[in-house]
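FORM 12-B: Structure-to-Sequence Request
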């Protein structure tokens, strides 16, 4: 029975896992320890999220006004992709999170875009259908005025270091024990499971269940248990990032910006007091020095501005839970940060792990089910991120050619064929059992239509749309403009965060 739980690592993944387990099993008298090294740092990035994180805070019973100001957090309506496409009119587009308001025109969006894929001259850019895209353009919060009935899902941006500190204090309040020690050895028992981990001063930490949150090196799952690693670098080229903070503007954007550069893409994430910026690139196509110069130019910062360099290992372990060890966070795997999904993997994995263990009377009987679910999450997230690269139409560098030149897997090839023939991609997603939980049908459509990934891109060859198409763009624009007036300025809603 899993009663003595040892979490290795005090990064965001370590503290998210510890606090969630401590909250869920508060009355069980289990021992939960977090061991982190003061000699090995945390990754120091990871500031954007997806809406499922709100459910995680709800499950912990922590309201926004308590944690957001302490973590310099802001609201996130979605991601704006800039310069990923060289198709006229598609230089940028927005990927909004779900909104009840956008749902009103979902059918109009799908009809208009479907006709466009069939070669008719209809409205082909998704932004015009979305109130949430308008909120981004006006730096508005996803929180509507009081008494306004329609709600939008949203996520957050935050300072990852401050969030780890905040969750650490919550975990310790809930009885989690915290030890600073650097682990240098792992003892296995005669079944090959982990018996204990040993620090470099000889202290031995015994446990029934080990949660490996040791970052990219995956000290327990990868190194000690030797679980196979599956690299994604045959299709996802980026393996490094350079980061720098910049000053906040007078108004605070409510979205992440992802701008394609010569050999990757740059993020800009607004926190209350600064922007976090980074250039995710492929070291095969650009050196760290050149990437630094390009990032600083992109941000109009002087040469010589201090930056941080990060290496990335993009791939996953074949099993996220082996014997008595489950890895969470970077130790479990990482699909590159384009859609800010890594912390979603942490929260969903710890939720799944706790319920898999509870349902099996605190044993490992549900391990295979857990591993299959995790594999499916990796597969659909990886597919979605790969499609960003396959659908790019930049011609300015070898990197962008290479980024779309890999052979898509069967699912993606089927999806692309269906899209370009003007067929309904919903059927393909359903038949291929692509999980639509994280990326809905609209999200796939936003990606392809936003980038102008149409087989007929020359407007002059387009046919006149049939008369009976029930899409009144002027009325939709009016609806979008009026609806956006019900939402506050982002900056104001952050200032007004109150109990
Ligand atoms: C460039 C980049 C951008 C990213 N952007 C996003 C984003 O926008 N959104 C998102 O959700 N995620 C993002 N991520 C991922 C995100 O940063 C991580 O998922 C998150 O920070 C969790 O990291 P971690 O806790 O798994 O690992 P780490 O932060 O690396 O923490 C590892 C911990 O293990 C401890 N440790 C390691 N070895 C030992 C040892 N031998 N003994 C004791 N302790 C040890 C360390 O001290 C540390 O406390 C990004 C990642 C990268 C690389």
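FORM 12-B RESPONSE
SEQUENCE OUT:
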């Amino acid at each position: 029975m899993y009663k003595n739980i040892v979490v290795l690592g005090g990064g965001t993944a370590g503290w998210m896992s510890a606090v969630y387990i401590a909250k869920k099993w508060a009355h069980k008298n289990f021992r939960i320890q977090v061991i982190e090294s003061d000699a090995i740092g945390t990754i120091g990035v990871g500031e954007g999220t997806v809406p499922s994180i709100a459910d995680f805070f709800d499950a912990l019973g922590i309201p926004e006004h308590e944690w957001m100001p302490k973590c310099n957090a802001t609201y996130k309506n979605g991601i704006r992709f800039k310069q990923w496409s060289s198709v006229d009119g598609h230089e940028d587009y927005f990927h909004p999170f779900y909104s009840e308001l956008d749902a009103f025109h979902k059918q109009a969006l799908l009809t208009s875009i479907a006709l466009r894929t069939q070669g008719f001259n209809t409205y082909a850019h998704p932004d015009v259908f979305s109130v949430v895209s308008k909120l981004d353009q006006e730096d508005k919060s996803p929180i509507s005025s009081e008494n306004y009935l329609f709600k939008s899902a949203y996520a957050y941006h935050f300072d990852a270091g401050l969030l780890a500190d905040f969750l650490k204090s919550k975990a310790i309040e809930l009885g989690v024990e915290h030890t600073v020690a650097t682990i240098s050895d792992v003892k296995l028992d005669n079944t090959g499971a982990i018996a204990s981990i040993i620090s470099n001063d000889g202290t031995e930490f015994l446990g029934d269940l080990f949660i490996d949150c040791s970052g990219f090196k995956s000290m327990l799952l990868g190194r000690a248990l030797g679980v196979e690693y599956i690299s994604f670098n045959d299709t996802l080229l980026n393996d490094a990032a350079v980061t720098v903070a910049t000053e906040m503007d007078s108004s605070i954007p409510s979205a992440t910006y992802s701008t394609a550069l010569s050999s990757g893409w740059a993020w800009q994430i607004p926190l209350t007091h600064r922007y976090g910026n980074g250039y995710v690139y492929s070291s095969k196509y650009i050196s760290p020095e050149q990437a630094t110069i390009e990032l600083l130019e992109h941000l109009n910062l002087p040469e010589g501005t201090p930056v941080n360099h990060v290496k990335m290992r993009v791939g996953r372990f074949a099993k996220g839970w082996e014997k008595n060890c489950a890895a969470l966070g970077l130790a479990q795997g990482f699909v590159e940060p384009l859609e800010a999904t890594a912390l979603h993997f942490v929260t969903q994995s710890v939720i799944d792990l706790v319920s898999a263990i509870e349902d099996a009377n605190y044993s490992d009987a549900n391990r295979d089910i857990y591993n299959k679910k995790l594999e499916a999450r990796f597969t659909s997230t990886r597919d979605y991120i790969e499609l960003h690269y396959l659908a790019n139409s930049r011609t300015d560098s070898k990197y962008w050619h290479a980024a779309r030149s890999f052979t898509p897997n069967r699912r993606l090839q089927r999806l692309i064929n269906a899209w370009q023939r003007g067929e309904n991609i919903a059927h393909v997603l359903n038949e291929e059992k692509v999980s639509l939980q994280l990326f809905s049908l609209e999200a796939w459509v936003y990606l392809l239509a936003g980038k102008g990934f149409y087989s007929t891109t020359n407007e002059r060859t387009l046919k006149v749309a049939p008369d009976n198409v029930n899409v009144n763009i002027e009325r939709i624009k009016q609806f979008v403009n009026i609806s956006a007036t019900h939402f506050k300025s982002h900056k104001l809603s952050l200032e007004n965060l109150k109990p």
